[in-house]
Amino acid sequence: MHLQKCVSFFILKMIRLCMKRVESVNILEIQDLTKKFGDFIAVDHMSLSVAEGEIFGFLGSNGAGKSTTIHMITGLLRKNKGTIIVLGKNSEKSATFIKRNIGMVPQELAIYEDLTAYENVHFFAGLYGMRGKKLHERTVEALKFVGLEGKEKIYPRNFSGGMKRRLNIACAIAHRPKLIIMDEPTVGIDPQSRKYILDSVRKLNAMGCTIIYTSHYMEEVEEICTRIAIIDHGKIIAEGTKEQLKSLITDSKLIVVDVKSPEAVDLAAIQAIQGVSNVQLDDQTIQIHTELGVNNLNHLIAHFIQNGIEIRSLDEREPNLETVFLTLTGRNLRDA
Amino acid sequence: MERCLISAKMVLLLFVVFSIILEPGRDVSWAVLLILLYICANFSIYLFKSVRLKTFCLLLSAALAIVGYGLVHPLFILLLPLAILECLHEKMNHQLIAQLISLVPMFYIQTDMRPLYVLVALVMGLLYRQVANYDKKLATAHQQLDTARENYQSLVKRLHERDSYLKQSAYMLKLEERNKISQEIHDNIGHSITGALIQMEAAKSLLQRNPQKAEKLLQNAIGITKEGIESIRLTLKNLKPSIEHIGISRLKLYLNEFAAKQHISTILTHYGDMERILPLQWKIIFDNMNEALTNALRYSEATRITVDITVLNKLIKLEVKDNGRGIDILEKGLGIIGMEERAAAADGKVIIDGKSGFSVTTLLPIQT
């Protein structure tokens, strides 16, 4: 009887322990991270965590400290202060483990022009510890993933900028890392390649990879990231989903409707439509302030149609991350 | 380390003593003298503080070992290696070299003693190296513990300071408010009620003798009381100004004074619902603006400073910006750290940018 109790207790405890492991699935945890170059503070007491399955965006202007942070995560730069825990391991004690289990797509192309596409991926996957048949299979798979199948034997010097970028990504994902860090992977490429890369980021995420994505292109970050940290002067000044970030500065969007006969518009009736917080008539246009996150365009348009009012144009002005950045820092993202 | 070495010496000494005693037909008096001297010399090592005396003691014990070996009993040579190791420990970085040196005397001693000597020298060397390593590690661990403790202390201290800053500011605001209320009560309501009271007292004493006069006085008292009630109403209304009013007007006043004194033009703008800023946040805004103004005055060579307060949906933003020469690489001084800490006390952030002019932005979350 006693023994049974003991055993069941032990088993319960083990299960609980396992559950705990599963619960705390922060792929990356940074605490109080600081990096100085002389007097210049590149990263200033930064703390953040990235959970498994996220596409985490680092958004900031050039020189905000994005790449420095990433280089410290991957172990390329020494930190001055703070702790970094990647995949549950301390970055100082388990540097090799971390390097083997993350994929890094650096900002500057890291491919050899004198090796073919296949050889490039083969080489890098080999560095990450792949061997033999597996190495070959993964290499082919990675090239296929970035859409470079059939171009295995071509030298990257004959590639377009976008293809080079894609090859750069293939080199980092062949060993199927749990965490992929992409440092401005879309700098200087054509829109088509950019779309391809963004799609593959989403696909990688769907396959279970956690992705850290840095960019100073607001649209990209807004499009693909599930959570975003806005970085400025080495500090995280705001963090959250894009909705949370937008709601920091405002809780409404503006719908501007240009109509033919504004005098026929019943402002009170529009005010009564769900989500509308304020309506103003301004010359020919009607300015409708609406709560963020409420989609009432159908109701609005139906209202105009039912009352026989002709709509000339309709413009929805929603705050975007650029506005958030501008409002918080007083500067544009593109400002150097 | 010392304890371990002393025990090692004890063990060696016991071995030597037993060997000598168990050997039949030998005069042990000289041996006893030498051993006692050896013990004295070795204990003195730990009693002296000066390195020279320590070395002297070590050399003495080495000499005793050699003398013992030559004159009394060959086993005394076994005491030599530890003395050599200890002697060389301070001067050599490489323990291995010290160990090799301790093996050198092997070539000068009797052949039958050699194996035993080598054994003792090697074992002692190993022991010594282990102990020394362990000692070093322990020392660094202690040092790390100390720094960690120091860090902890300073963090705790800063936490307390932040707490007390918050408490103090809240207390200051309360005091100001109380002072104002008592002043108002004294100035307005107190006077009216006293006036009414005097009239009523007079009416009471006149009630029998001169009812008409008494009625007039009472009427007066009623009038005064009415006025008093009105003034209470007014006072209450005045006493409850919007917080925003105190905050913004205080900033405006300060900025105007600053502009007049320093010949720098200042512009204050604000946007959004100022009512949502709490008194404590006003205090932080005021203090941070003050600090930023002082910095601008000291370093920027600016001619114009703009201060902007914007209340966003979930954030309050204070921006102090000048048109001075800015700065490329900022070295954080106490002022900026102070601003950061004040902001952090209310979960806020401070952004500093010196690329076009110098700007200090304080972001505070709106508390609901």
UniProtKB/TrEMBL annotation, chain B:
Lineage: superkingdom: Bacteria
Keywords: ATP-binding, Coiled coil, Kinase, Membrane, Nucleotide-binding, Phosphoprotein, Transferase, Transmembrane, Transmembrane helix, Two-component regulatory system
Class of this enzyme: transferase
GO molecular function, one term: kinase activity
Pfam families: HATPase_c (PF02518), HisKA_3 (PF07730)
Assigned EC number: 2.7.13.3
The reaction(s) this protein catalyses: ATP + protein L-histidine = ADP + protein N-phospho-L-histidine
Any coiled-coil regions, as ranges: 131-158
InterPro entries named in the record: HATPase_C_sf, HATPase_dom, Sensor_HK_TwoCompSys, Sig_transdc_His_kin_sub3_dim/P
Residues passing through the membrane, by range: 29-48, 55-80
Signal peptide (from-to): none
Domain named Histidine kinase/HSP90-like ATPase: residues: 290-365
Domain (Signal transduction histidine kinase subgroup 3 dimerisation and phosphoacceptor): residue spans on this chain: 177-242
UniProt name for this protein: histidine kinase
Organism in which the protein naturally occurs: Tigheibacillus jepli
Native organism taxonomy: Bacteria, Bacillati, Bacillota, Bacilli, Bacillales
